[in-house]
Structure formats: C-alpha cells, structure tokens
C-alpha cells in the first residue's frame, strides 16, 4: 500500500472529513435536515419534470433548503478555485484526457454513461456517498453499511477493469 | 435568512469536499485502485467524518425527542433487499467509471470544470429514468 498524500499527513485528510461531518450535523441539529446529495439531485429533477412522482411532499418539502444548498455548493467550488489560484473555466477533463484516448466526444460520452449509472443506482439504492457513507454508517444503519460495502466493491472492481488514472 | 444558512452550509460543505480531494477524479480512482498503487488518504476523510458524526448520533438516540422538536425524523427502518444492493452496485460502477459522485460534481462545476455539466445532466437523466420507470409511489 502506498499512501499518496501529496506530502501531507493523514491529519490533513481527517480534518476535511471532520469538517464535512460537522456541516452535516449542523444541518441536522439547527434545521432538522438530513443531508443527502442524491436527494438534492432528485429535487432538481422535480423542478423540471412535472411527473407526479417528483411533486410528492417528500421531494418538494425540502426544496426551500436543498436548492440554496446546491447553490452554496456551486459557490463553494467557485470560491475554492479562486483561493487555489484563480477561477479559470475549462473544458479540459483532467485525468480523462489521459485515460481515455477518444477525444472530446468520447470523454463526454464516458462521463455521460458514468452519470447515468450514478443517477439510476442512487435512486434504486436510496443514497450515495453522503447519505449512506457518512450519515447512514454513523448512525449505525445496517442498510447503509451494506450499501457502502457494495458500492466500494463494485467501484474498486470497475477501476481495476478500466484502469486507474495514473 | 434560512436561505442564507443553507447556502453557507453548502459552500462550507463544498470546501470540505475540495480539501478532502473528493472533487478530483484522479484522487478518487486512486483510492478505489485497491489492487494497484492504492492511495488510502480518502479513508481518513471518511473515518474522520464518521468519528465526528457517530458519537453525536449516538447521544441523540439516547433522547426521546430532539431538543427543538417533538419527535425524531429518522428514516423508517427498511429491510436490506436486492433493490438496495443492486442500486448500490450500479452506483459503484458509475463512481468507478467517472471518479465523481453527485456532490463533488456540483462543486467541480462551480470550480470551473465546465465539462462536468454533461455528468450532472446524465445523473439527472438517470434519476428521471429510474423514477418514471420503477413507479414506486
């Protein structure tokens, strides 16, 4: 096992995780909101699709805080980029440029397929890395533990099959 | 006011994801590359997040109701079924393929990775397809 920590100690990564949990807890305690990112996506869907499913109370009742939360995510990404050396929008895809030698269209198709799997899987399994991985496991949900072990395993197998970035 | 709180929480959450490396697909796939040159740093992120959340969740469960509400809103317990495992398995494949999960993708979009808009759109499409086809309430 090689720890590629970019020269940083495990404490750096642990601090980031602690921060993520603190925000999630703050939302739970201050506003009684259970944070799940795939549910935020579902909410965005409901804004466009007038299908009865997306107009249920369980989806729309969270809209008042989920939509501003998503806006905050965008803002946070923007500010992080600013802080990290300036915001320069790009069409480059980082690792995908090296990993998939298919040109721009190929990369976009690759990402589109990956996204479809994620959209389909999170709604079937009722959660993703935030809902199952942090909230679910921390409150001792066996369902979440099974979900996390399953998606970690299939993700690792997928990476082993298609090859990692480096 | 409530809008501002939610937005600030989102911005701080985004910061956590950026610092942790979750918004860098190369970092994520290196973490998933167990058989290759494994980069285990994201395990510290998850372990720390759970270590902070779990004791508070445990303490909360010792109470009959939350401090500012008459009852808890925990998700209703449900069985571990094929739907859960299948969904998680499919999500894992997507995560391994793209190196993005839903939250970090939105953050990356804000950070200027414009191509991620394709990914976000396809996640939305995947959700829409699931919900319209499975038609479960």
Structural class of chain A: mainly alpha
Which stretches of chain A are low in confidence, meaning pLDDT under 50 for 5 or more residues running? 1-5
Q: DSSP helix count of chain B?
A: 6
List low-pLDDT spans of chain B: none
Number of beta strands of chain A = 0
N-to-C SSE string of chain B, H for helix and E for strand: HHHHHH
Structure description:
The complex is a heterodimer of chains A (166) and B (137). Chain A is mostly helical. Chain A is built from eight helices and no strands. In chain A, helix 7 (129-138) crosses helix 8 (142-162). The two termini of chain A are 15 Å apart. Chain B has 137 residues and is mainly alpha-helical. Chain B has helices at 2-20, 25-32, 41-61, 82-98, 102-110, 116-134. Chain B starts with a helix and ends with a helix. The mean pLDDT of chain B is 85. At the A-B interface, helix 1, helix 2, helix 4, helix 6 and helix 7 of A face helix 1, helix 2, helix 3, helix 4 and helix 5 of B.
Layout: helices, strands, pairs:
The complex is a heterodimer of chains A (166) and B (137).
Chain A (H helix, E strand, L loop, with lengths): L9 H22 L5 H12 L8 H4 L2 H21 L11 H5 L3 H22 L4 H10 L3 H21 L4
Helix pairs in contact in A: 7-8
Chain B lengths: L1 H19 L4 H8 L8 H21 L20 H17 L3 H9 L5 H19 L3
What's this model, at a glance?
The complex is a heterodimer of chains A (166) and B (137). Chain A is mainly alpha-helical and 166 residues long.
Key structural traits:
heterodimer, A: 166 residues, mainly alpha, 8 helices, globular, disordered N terminus, B: 137 residues, 6 helices
């Amino acid at each position: 096992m090689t720890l590629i920590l970019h020269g940083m100690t495990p404490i750096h990564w642990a601090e980031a995780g602690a921060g993520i949990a603190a925000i999630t807890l703050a939302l739970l305690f201050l506003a009684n909101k259970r944070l799940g990112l795939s549910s935020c996506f579902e909410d965005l869907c409901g804004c466009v699709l007038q299908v009865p499913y997306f107009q249920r109370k369980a989806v729309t009742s969270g809209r008042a805080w989920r939509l501003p939360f998503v806006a905050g995510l965008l803002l946070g990404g923007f500010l992080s980029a600013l802080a990290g050396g300036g915001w320069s929008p790009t069409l480059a895809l980082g690792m995908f440029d090296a990993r998939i030698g298919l040109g721009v269209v190929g990369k976009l198709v690759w990402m589109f397929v990956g996204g479809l799997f994620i959209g389909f899987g999170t709604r079937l399994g009722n959660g993703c890395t935030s809902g199952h991985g942090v909230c679910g496991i921390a409150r001792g949900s066996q369902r979440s533990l099974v979900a996390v072990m399953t998606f970690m395993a299939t993700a690792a197998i997928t990476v082993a099959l298609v090859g990692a970035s480096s | 006011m409530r809008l501002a709180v939610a937005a600030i929480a989102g911005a701080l959450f985004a910061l956590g994801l950026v610092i942790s490396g979750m918004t860098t697909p190369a970092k994520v796939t290196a973490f998933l590359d167990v058989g290759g040159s494994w980069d285990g740093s994201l395990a510290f992120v998850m372990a720390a997040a759970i270590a902070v959340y779990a004791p508070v969740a445990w303490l909360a469960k010792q109470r009959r109701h939350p401090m500012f509400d008459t009852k808890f809103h925990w998700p209703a317990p449900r069985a571990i079924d094929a739907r859960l495992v299948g969904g998680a398995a499919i999500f894992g494949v997507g995560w391994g393929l793209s190196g993005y999960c839903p939250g970090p993708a939105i953050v990356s979009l804000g950070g200027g990775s414009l191509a991620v808009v394709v990914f976000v759109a396809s996640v939305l499409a995947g959700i829409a397809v699931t919900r319209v086809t499975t038609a479960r309430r």
